């Protein structure tokens, strides 16, 4: 059973359709990417999922029943892109206060906070004020306040902003660990390489509508264009018109080719071997999510990087 289902959601602001008939579901324990350009409707969707906005049409199913913000919000942790920490409060005091708002007793909150602070090397921060923290330190604190109450659904909007590589990996490891324990994570970012690395499944929205929905691997397979990189010891002097591929680029003793017609990769290999070409590598080129994102949002071909390469 999915933890979260959005069924034909619509949200209007005056005459603008911020969200227009969007449906998708997210399984428990899944790390889910919610993607789209600025103004696509992502924030409006998140605000409906967290009960800040009510949909004008459609419904949200949470944990098998109609979403009830009054009761279900306690099972959600939301880390917005714009941080909401109180700058003048001491960190220990603030974290305890936010944990109690989510239903933890003071004793349980204090215990969990100390565990997280030790894990994130924050145990000396207790009496610091938020305004004294760097952006990266604030980011770690915000993450802790988001997950402290063990929510079933965790929504992270640009969670790695301001973090150095060491702390980025620290947060990534915790996201994986939380998902492994059964938490569902909605991950929103503009960094497509992070989405490819972290997410199991993505939805891409643009201008208030859903334009892509699927697993990362399946989407990349669906958008592939029969492109292969072939490493050779020596570039042949010529390739005649009977080749089962077209060369779209070459550089540093490597071809980029597109297989033509009904030909298969083995046909390419046989063609080159028969002409005495020593092949060092043969790899399929799959489009990145960033290329697919640009293609769908702006209408740019995925393989644009090869269009002007001399063959």
Please tell me about this protein's structure.
This protein has 311 residues and is an alpha/beta fold. 32% of the residues lie in helices and 29% in strands. The chain contains 10 helices and 14 strands. The protein has helices spanning 42-49, 69-72, 91-101, 106-119, 135-147, 165-180, 192-198, 216-222, 265-274, 289-298; strands at 2-13, 16-27, 31-35, 57-62, 65-66, 76-79, 153-157, 184-188, 201-206, 209-215, 227-232, 245-250, 254-259, 279-285. A 6-stranded mixed β-sheet has the order 6-7-8-3-9-10. Strands 2-1-4-5 form a 4-stranded antiparallel β-sheet, covered by helices on one side. Helix 3 crosses helix 4 (106-119). It is elongated.
Can you count the beta strands? 14
SS summary, helix count: 10
Low-confidence stretches: 303-311
Structural class: alpha/beta
Short description:
The protein is of the alpha/beta class and 311 residues long. The protein has ten helices and 14 strands.
Secondary-structure topology with pairs:
Layout: E1 2-13, E2 16-27, E3 31-35, H1 42-49, E4 57-62, E5 65-66, H2 69-72, E6 76-79, H3 91-101, H4 106-119, H5 135-147, E7 153-157, H6 165-180, E8 184-188, H7 192-198, E9 201-206, E10 209-215, H8 216-222, E11 227-232, E12 245-250, E13 254-259, H9 265-274, E14 279-285, H10 289-298
Parallel strand pairs: 3-8, 3-9, 6-7, 7-8
Antiparallel strand pairs: 1-2, 1-4, 4-5, 9-10, 11-13, 11-14, 12-13
Helix pairs in contact: 3-4
